[in-house]
Amino acid sequence: MIIAIDGPAASGKGTIARRLAAYFSLPHLDTGLLYRATARVLLDEGSKLDDVEKAVSAARGLALLDFEEERLRGREMGEAASVVGAIPQVRAALIDMQRAFAARPQGAVLDGRDIGTVIAPEARVKIFVTASPEARAQRRALELRGRGEKVDYAAILEDIRKRDKRDAERAEAPLRPAEDAKILDTTDLNIEGAFAAALSIVNGAEAAS
């Protein structure tokens, strides 16, 4: 069983994906980490994020293991990943890695922005997780505050709206729900409520198959 979970930043898709993976004992891949890790390589070597040749080289050099997640979180890395992810050649370089993960015999849970539309269009379960920009900004602010980072809600909201626009308008694999995806709006849901709603969608898809 492949579970494809897509959605914009801070919608709750990552938390839902991890909870579903644990519940069904499936491997999980946060595909956003691939783009964050690619951006991290460029930043560490002092290269520009829009340097296509170096970005593609960084993407091809990644492995799915040993990500230093602490260095891949935060506002800076989210924005950097969005810039790198808009490069078609980078997305192409990472497609095979993601598809191989999805094709594991026992199945998998993947979350990102193009799982149901590009990486695993054959997925049995597709969920598009969304929430209002304001709710997502509030969640991101709480997350950053919990990490000890300085929080500017207005700046976070602006970042989220910029990322939404860039992700939706990019030429390659724009952020959008797959035609057969179930929409899950988490604006007014807590973590438990969002997970329960997602689990209901998965169980419904299983029952119908």
UniProtKB/TrEMBL annotation:
It is found in: Cytoplasm. ATP binds at residues 7-15. It catalyses: dCMP + ATP = dCDP + ADP; CMP + ATP = CDP + ADP. Its EC number is 2.7.4.25. The keyword Secreted does not apply. GO terms for molecular function: kinase activity. InterPro entries: Cytidylate_kin, Cytidylate_kinase_dom, P-loop_NTPase. Residues 3-201 form the Cytidylate kinase domain. Pfam families: Cytidylate_kin. Keywords: ATP-binding, Cytoplasm, Kinase, Nucleotide-binding, Transferase. It is an enzyme of class 2 (transferase). The keyword Nucleotide-binding applies. Its main location: cytoplasm. HAMAP family: Cytidyl_kinase_type1 (MF_00238). NCBIfam families: cmk. Belongs to the cytidylate kinase family. Type 1 subfamily. This is Cytidylate kinase. The gene is cmk.
